[in-house]
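Follow-up to my post from last week.
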Amino acid sequence: MNRKPATGVYNCFGMVFASRRTSVDDDIEKVLREDGFRQLNTGEKPRTGDLVCYRAESADLLHVAVVTRIDPIVDSSNQELGTGGVFALSKWNDSFGEDEHNIKNHAWDPDWGIAIEFFTDRP
Amino acid sequence: MMAHKSLLELVSLDFEASVVTSSASGLCALLRKSSRLHRLRADHRSGAVTDDNLRQFVDSLLSEFATLESFPHQVALATIAVLFENRHSPLAEDYLIDLSRVRTARLRMAASVARICLRNRSLLPKVAAKTFEQLDNGLREHRPPNEESNIADTTSYVDKDERVPLAFIDERRYRYCSDSELQLMR
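User reply:
Got it. Predicted complex:
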């Protein structure tokens, strides 16, 4: 779902860390650390407002997006059984606007071994 | 003149989407895995895409720079930068140095990629990738079509049984590559 048209004013890191005012290119790991983000532990579920980071096999951070909603899996009596799709708001690059998408929906080759990591500033 | 297919592929939206990232080092990593770059590299090595083709292609992309508010061909320029990362030719040198010096937001990503490629390039051994064939009366050198740009990413052979990469000392002399140089070549 498209939220905003393409712009080159800010990139994904600028959307998340600089309030859409500029592009941020360097030291993203440092920004994460200094802004008090921690990686979610194994088994810890993401929540709205957490960050989803895409990392290349080379360990380069490719992209960051903000978790916007998490669809629960429910049974017929509306009892929550678990977590379904996780959706996030992304600003992909200068040629793309902002999109809300399932975090598993991206255009990278599945064989490239892109890892998905969650970060949060929750305690 | 119509550009070669493997060059035209670089300006397609689906290619841009396939390597989408906001990080220059990430773009380098994705481009190195991209089949389009592998195809372009193969075509460049074989001579199907020449340095002149690349120069004309880049010129045609940059002709749009003045007229477009946002420049849509950064990924194409970045791909050529990664192609040139381990090629030593006057064009590769000029291209990487010129692009790395650009300071404009519209070319931010491509310029950052060029700076990374230049940095990586400085780590490469100065290896002459001349290919030799063992003949009864000595060695015969094979010269690939893009002769100037044949350094560091192909292998040289001096022995018909054992293929040995050679490091360049000067125009006429070679030495065996060290293990660390071989690591960098791979």
